[in-house]
Amino acid sequence: MHGVLGWWVPVTSVDIRSPGPAAGGGRPPAVEVRGLTKHYGDLVAVKEIDFSVAQGEVFAFLGPNGAGKSTTIKMLCTLAHPTSGRAVVAGYDVVSRAKAVRRHIGLVFQEQTLDDQLTAEENLRFHAVLYGVPHDQVDQRITKVMDLVALSDRRKDLVSTYSGGMARRLEIARGMLHTPRVLFLDEPTIGLDPQTRALMWEDVLRLRQEEGVTIFLTTHYMDEAEYADRIAIIDHGTIVALDTPDALKALVGADTVALETADDDAALASLKRAGYTAERTEGGLTAFVADQEAAVGPLVAAVGVPVRTVRAHRPTLDDVFLHFTGREIREQHADAIPMFARAHGARRH
Amino acid sequence: MTTLSTAGPTTPAIPPAPATAPPTPDTRLSQEIRVAGMVWERELIRYTRNRTRIASGLMQPVLFLFVLGYGMSGLVGSTGGFNFRQFVFPGVVAMSVVMTAMFSAISIVWDREFGFLREMLVAPVSRMALVLGKTAGGATVAAAQGTIMLVLAPLVGVRLTPLLVVEVIGLELLMAVAMTTFGVFVASRIQKMEAFQVVMQMLLMPMLFLSGALFPLNNLPKWLSVITRLNPLTYAVAPLRQVVFAAQNMTPAAQARFAAGVTVFGHTLPIMADVAIVVVFALVFFGLAVRGLSRTE
Hints:
The structure holds 2 protein chains of 2 kinds.
Chain A: E1 31-40, E2 43-53, E3 58-62, H1 69-76, E4 84-89, E5 92-93, H2 98-103, E6 105-108, H3 120-130, H4 135-148, H5 164-176, E7 182-186, H6 194-211, E8 214-219, H7 222-225, E9 230-235, E10 238-243, H8 245-252, E11 255-261, H9 264-273, E12 277-281, E13 284-289, H10 292-303, E14 307-313, H11 317-325, H12 337-346
Parallel strand pairs in A: 3-8, 3-9, 6-7, 7-8
Antiparallel strand pairs in A: 1-2, 1-4, 4-5, 9-10, 11-13, 11-14, 12-13
Helix pairs in contact in A: 3-4, 4-5, 5-6, 8-11
Chain B: H1 2-6, H2 25-49, H3 51-76, H4 84-113, H5 116-121, H6 127-149, H7 162-189, H8 193-209, H9 222-230, H10 234-246, H11 252-257, E1 263-264, E2 267-268, H12 271-294
Antiparallel strand pairs in B: 1-2
């Protein structure tokens, strides 16, 4: 799904200071950040970060807890005051035009912010009034956003009867009610099961398609960052990498196929004769290929000796994260381990 | 998945025009009023939806009216046909108003705990509109609760006239507004649910007991007399009792024994003076409540 994304940014670009995908038909970026810094006393939570997000882009901030994700999102949403630097969101400065920013952004927080003694519709109506949606458009917008998150049949139900996943989707619908230019999602899928998480992502991508909204999210889930058009990896308050998921993975290394054969030396020689780049590794040999899935068949055929095991590997965002931060993100997140079990098991060590 | 991504960023939809019009001073004011109205409506929805709250809100005053009323009547006796139940009735009405208003205002602590306060505070609206709506909502609900109490009047021998009902509702609203602003201010300072019980025990109960709701404020020992006069609630309870008593046929002896008004330095304050004190109290705490909420986010 990321093949089309070269439109946004040259895949080879790794210059995080570049203005980013500003080429979007001359439209101003949805988020523009220059030298943004936040100190809490002696602690530097965010240190001179720069980036910009194009209108309609899905942009993920990936990093461990305490990396500065939440602080950044708070500054962009005008809930925290930057120590220095500048941020323009939806065309308004977050410091001098805070109220204008708030009118043009949608917010979904980590923790639930619904009134569960009201119905879904009442919650949305309340929000519509808070954000000044004109009277004659309120009903129409409520119908639209409830449809977008597929909760129309639960419109008149009390929120207390909703499951956690439904409540989260209702919050996303509510965040979209006043037609914001940017929708901020702070760790949107925390505490949700994988199926609900997938449903939520369908909602988010549908919103982007139908309403042209820019999605800015923070996450520490790798597989979630995969949905983003571009990912900024933040660590110790600075952006250490920023690009499309594919470009980031390409930076870390090529696809590899690891083989164990009856005679590894002979196999290596055969592969080199056949034009492959390969080397002996512990317990076998490793070939470097352009596309591991397509390469396995021809590779095994070219080896010329019986093959005992084959393990193909494509760099994952885990590898990317490890590469840029020097540690694995899941080490800090015991709660996140189960969902990485699949990816983890598939990895070669 | 595939269908979604193919229509991805290469063909981004033109974003619809923002639904919000650029605010002019005029639309901004009507917007603030609309917000206050919505917050008010939410209070009403939550109140009417919670039957147990209505019932439990009536329980305590009813207990005071009948149990304390009959219990004390034997001890106090009657003067000119006027007894303690009749005396305590306006106080019990006031008590139900005060407790409902305080409970309503302090639900902000719940809103904080369950996150809804955040939804309100991050919205591009003024804190004043939020506090105004909350105050109006709490006052409406509390006055309603107090007015429900009026159906018990005939059971304890208190005569109601249409004018009296109107006067009582007006005074209930004033008392409720004052207590709601006070409650919102207190709630804005409370970060934890546990503190809520403490506040109710340490603040509300003493205020109620020292307000003259349950006993006459004349002939008290000096120290108690001073404390009751410092209690703002005293000036909210007294007018209510004065208008109720004015509609009863009380002998001068009964009037002297069951004093309705507050005496300060030997002078009985007129109703309007009491009302003015309560209005000032409400205004001060309205301002403090707006400030208290502004600090929050």
